[in-house]
Amino acid sequence: MTQPVRRFTGLILAATFVSGLVSATQVAAQTPAGLSTAKAKELSAIMKGKNIDSFAMKEGQSPNRFVAVMLVPDVQLLLVSAVYSRPTDIEYRLYQKDYTQAYRDLRAGALASERFFIEDILADGLMATPAKNAQPDSMIIGTAAPFVFVGAADPKKSKDTRMALEPYMKAFGEADKRYAELLDGVIQELKKAGIVAPARELR
Question: Whole-prediction pTM value?
Fold first, then answer.
């Protein structure tokens, strides 16, 4: 191979390498670590430390809106926020520390409405794109069909029926932010309820 050809080939390989780096950087920028990641892990650790698998509380200053969580360690973290038309029923559950039933009432009770429900697989926060062969996280708002976080459509695949990248990441970002805020509220409430084990990263 002559010197000019070698130089030309080297330039092509270098350009391809740089292009690959730019593409990888763009993908990383489009799918940042979720805001809920640290919060989900912290809540899971606190609940494990307190030896509880469920908890419920009033959400903010609203008289009839509540939030409840249920943890299956190392499997999933479930969270539901909902308005309950007969709030004294949930308040009684909270008084009795019957958090599991409070969760069930908010998740599936006939008197619950305006639900925001998250199924966080592995209790590690929402993931915009699931790992290979992993079950995706999902969200339900109100009575809409589940929004499953399976990743955005690949523009190179014409038959990819998933949502386009921009609207998909917008939906993910809004869900992740709300989930993180609700998790933080539950964490702060649990920390007030006596001594808790130090938060630790779950693996």
Answer: 0.79
Query: What is the 3-state secondary structure of the chain?
Result: CCHHHHHHHHHHHHHHHHHHHHHHHHHHHHCCCCCHHHHHHHHHHHHHHCCCCEEEEECCCCCCEEEEEEEECCCEEEEEEEEECCHHHHHHHHHCCCHHHHHHHHHHCCCEEEEEEEEEECCCCCCCCCCCCCCCCEEEECCCCCEECCCCCCCCCCCCCCCCHHHHHHHHHHHHHHHHHHHHHHHHHHHHCCCCCCCCCCC
Q: What is the pLDDT of residues 46-92, one digit of tens each?
A: 999 999 999 999 998 888 999 999 999 989 999 999 999 999 999 99
Domain boundaries, the chain: 1-30, 32-192
